[in-house]
Amino acid sequence: MGVGKSPTARVIVADDEPLIRWSISEALAREGYHVEEAHNGARMLEHLEKESEHDGLVLLDLKLPDCSDLSLLKMVRKRAPQWGVVLMTAHGTPELAEEALALGALQVLNKPFDIHDIVRIVEDSLGRSST
Question: Which range marks the domain in which residue 14 is found?
Answer without folding.
Answer: 3-129
